[in-house]
Amino acid sequence: MMILHDFLPSGNGYKIRLLCAFLGLKVTLKEYDITKGETHSDAFLAMNPNGKIPVLELDDGQCLSESNAVLLYLAEAHQSPLLPSDLIQKAKVHQWLFWEQYSHEPNIASPRFWLTHNAMTDLKAQMLPDRIQQGNAALQLMDDTLSTQDFLTGNTLTLADICLFPYTHVAEEGGAYDLLNYPHVQRWINTIKALNWYLPITHATL
Ligand SMILES: N[C@@H](CCC(=O)N[C@@H](CS)C(=O)NCC(=O)O)C(=O)O
Hints:
Blueprint: E1 3-6, H1 11-23, E2 28-31, H2 42-47, E3 55-57, E4 63-65, H3 67-77, H4 87-116, H5 122-146, H6 159-169, H7 183-193
Parallel strand pairs: 1-2
Antiparallel strand pairs: 1-3, 3-4
Helix pairs in contact: 1-3, 1-6, 4-5, 4-6, 5-7
This protein binds glutathione.
Glutathione is lined by residues 7, 10, 12, 34, 39, 51-54, 66-68, 101.
Domain GST C-terminal: 86-206
Family: Belongs to the GST superfamily.
Pfam families: GST_C, GST_N
């Protein structure tokens, strides 16, 4: 069975847990406490020299890191409709995945971690107002998109929604964001939570 090296509160790890739930894939979860530097051991660095979860260890021992690369691998390996075969539709999914890593995750996930894990430093406190401004711009862009369609790339769920849901639905943790300002995002969150395969972020059993 594949092994997911992970940390339960991580949205990056949760992207993969959520996709596995959608695909009906069983994986063994191996947890690390990133607040104690547990991803910097020699054994972990041999799997991912970048020292970060999530890492998906395949049945043959090969290891994949970078959450969105893992999403793409699993969706392609299982020929999932979450990744359309039409090249333009596929590129639209890729657009959201690249946008998430540059414009969303650093502005929404990092402040959440700093504020909820007692990880604030003087430098991070200086960066926080700018991050929050950019994070609100990202949430507004999603809200505008979702004001005219059910999901991020159109009216069907794709890998873009699996990628963006995790850090968006917990954006308020730490107090930097207020999702009441984004009603279409809230509706989208509730739609995904109501899907029959939905798995909460804290759920350890896959
Ligand atoms: N771009 C990477 C980011 C991974 C990442 O930031 N992982 C964090 C947890 S969400 C981590 O393992 N941090 C531990 C550390 O840097 O020591 C991805 O999408 O997988």
